[in-house]
């Protein structure tokens, strides 16, 4: 979402912050669907019209949180990439850092998962409305891979950033529903998945890996059908071993 210049002044930034804090306080207390814009304005201590000036809908407030976590994740990822070449450490570090950013809103995200699975909903990570955020998140995966120690075939390398983004979405869904203490099951899920994925990526370099590579490419294509205004990765090269 592009923020008009008038909304970038210190006063405007303060007002936006007041509205967001009021909104998320009410979302936690009453629930997302049950909270009205009028109630948010009252909680923020301003007129309803003023609240609508900064955020036309409650969904825009959620998208603002999405944008903030994306910007913070980009900063953190640059730090991690400068500190280590380990793909495993980079990717898991980025994933859990992102989860940490939304931890305080975890109950809200449980509710939002119902919207997230519907690509036509504006808050879905697969929707047209979130296309710019989705593309930024995929670019972040590209940065995580670039310069790392990950070994992978030239067939799968172009589509890997988006495949990792899909995996991240699955982990966030699991995390939102994970009732284990401090979401230990989520951490174990990521650990086991990386134990499986990293060696498999390395195996994609083998001469007889053609069937495996073609299968991964097909899975990527099927997953892409979920996305509105698709951000399709470049067409993969001929699989090795074919």
TrEMBL record:
* Location of the DNA-binding region in this protein: 36-55
Alphabetically list the UniProt keywords.
DNA-binding, Membrane, Transmembrane, Transmembrane helix
Record field: transmembrane: 159-177, 189-212
**Signal peptide residue numbers:** none
Q: Which residues form a coiled coil?
A: none
Where the record annotates domain HTH tetR-type, the positions are 13-73
List the PROSITE patterns hit by this protein, alphabetically.
HTH_TETR_2
| GO MF annotation terms | DNA-binding transcription factor activity; transcription cis-regulatory region binding
Any Pfam family hit:
TetR_C_23
Protein name in the entry = TetR/AcrR family transcriptional regulator
Annotated source species:
Candidatus Nitronauta litoralis
């Amino acid at each position: 979402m592009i923020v008009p210049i008038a909304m970038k002044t210190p006063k405007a930034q303060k007002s936006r912050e007041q509205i967001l804090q009021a909104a998320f306080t009410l979302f936690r207390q009453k629930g997302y669907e049950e909270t009205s814009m009028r109630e948010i304005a009252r909680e923020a201590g301003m007129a309803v019209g003023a609240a609508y000036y900064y955020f036309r809908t409650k969904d825009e407030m959620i998208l603002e949180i999405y944008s903030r976590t994306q910007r913070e994740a980009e900063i953190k990822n640059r730090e991690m990439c400068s500190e280590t070449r380990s793909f495993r450490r980079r990717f898991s570090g980025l994933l859990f850092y992102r989860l940490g950013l939304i931890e305080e809103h975890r109950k809200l995200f449980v509710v939002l998962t119902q919207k997230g699975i519907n690509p036509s909903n504006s808050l879905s990570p697969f929707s047209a409305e979130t296309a710019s955020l989705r593309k930024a998140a995929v670019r972040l995966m590209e940065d995580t891979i670039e310069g790392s120690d990950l070994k992978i075939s030239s067939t799968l390398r172009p589509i890997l950033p988006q495949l990792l983004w899909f995996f991240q979405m699955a982990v966030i869904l699991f995390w939102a529903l994970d009732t284990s203490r401090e979401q230990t099951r989520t951490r174990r899920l990521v650990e086991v998945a990386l134990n499986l994925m990293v060696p498999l990526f390395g195996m994609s370099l083998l001469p007889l890996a053609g069937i495996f590579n073609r299968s991964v490419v097909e899975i990527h294509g099927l997953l892409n059908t979920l996305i509105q205004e698709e951000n399709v990765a470049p067409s993969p090269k001929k699989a090795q071993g074919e």
